[in-house]
Specification:
single chain, 219 residues, alpha/beta, Nucleotidyltransferase, domain 5, 2 domains, five-stranded mixed beta sheet, 10 strands, 33% helix, 31% strand, globular
Length: 219
């Protein structure tokens, strides 16, 4: 039974996943309250499904990019559980988890998260030739840059503001597909599925060295 934890932004999510089955999932608006709310959500989900912590087989955690405080809280919880229970730990890029929710569309997928200062966190993914692939590493970019670089029909997803959506539609026309609002929240079940795939190849991370992805330094 895998426990997945995502506290990358003000929207947080935890999920339980085993043998291709989502056993439970809680997704909620944490705002800046990750420290106070994460553990009650984890324990509540375990209790809801009748699962004791010792029954877990691994921990999957979103490692950013995202908010500094949110990522620290999620990664600390994941490391604490992995250390105390002797479980394998897998860190997944938050942008990859966002994109993976839309992988069946078979389009280039550009996840977006706010980064401040007129920029966004982004990367590029696509499922083709029977493999899920990262086409572009996580980076900071402006919306103008992304519009200029988008030459083919691409799905934009993640935490997009209304003004950004309008800009993309005006600038890109038929070259852009916007994920609907109901598909915007990150679901930890997809994070868990990515983690399960990594663990199937024995690709666990070292809890000592696993670090969050910060594309911009804290000031």
């Amino acid at each position: 039974m895998l426990l997945a934890i995502d506290t990358s932004t003000r929207l947080a999510s935890v999920a339980l996943y085993a043998a291709g089955v989502v056993r439970g999932e809680h997704t909620w608006w944490a705002d800046q309250n990750h420290t106070a709310e994460l553990w009650p959500q984890i324990m509540g989900l375990l209790a809801q499904e009748g699962i004791a912590p010792r029954q877990l087989s691994g921990i999957v955690v979103a490692i950013g990019p995202g908010s500094f405080n949110g990522l620290r809280v999620g990664l600390s919880a994941a490391k604490g559980l992995a250390w105390s229970l002797g479980l394998p730990l897998v860190g997944i890029c938050t942008l990859e988890a966002i994109a993976y929710q839309h992988s069946l569309l078979r389009l280039p997928i550009r996840p977006v998260l706010p980064a401040g200062r007129g920029e966004v966190n982004t990367a590029l993914y696509r499922y083709f030739f029977r493999r899920w692939r990262q086409l572009e590493a996580p980076r900071l970019a402006t919306l103008d840059q992304l519009c200029a670089e988008t030459e083919r029909r691409t799905l934009f997803c993640g935490e997009l503001e209304a003004v950004q959506v309008e800009t993309l539609r005006q600038r890109l026309g038929r070259r852009v597909v916007i994920a609907p609002p109901a598909a915007a929240p990150r679901r930890a079940a997809f994070l868990a599925e990515l983690g399960a795939q990594r663990l199937a190849t024995a690709a666990a991370d070292d809890p000592v060295t696993l670090q969050p992805i910060y594309l911009r330094r804290a000031v």
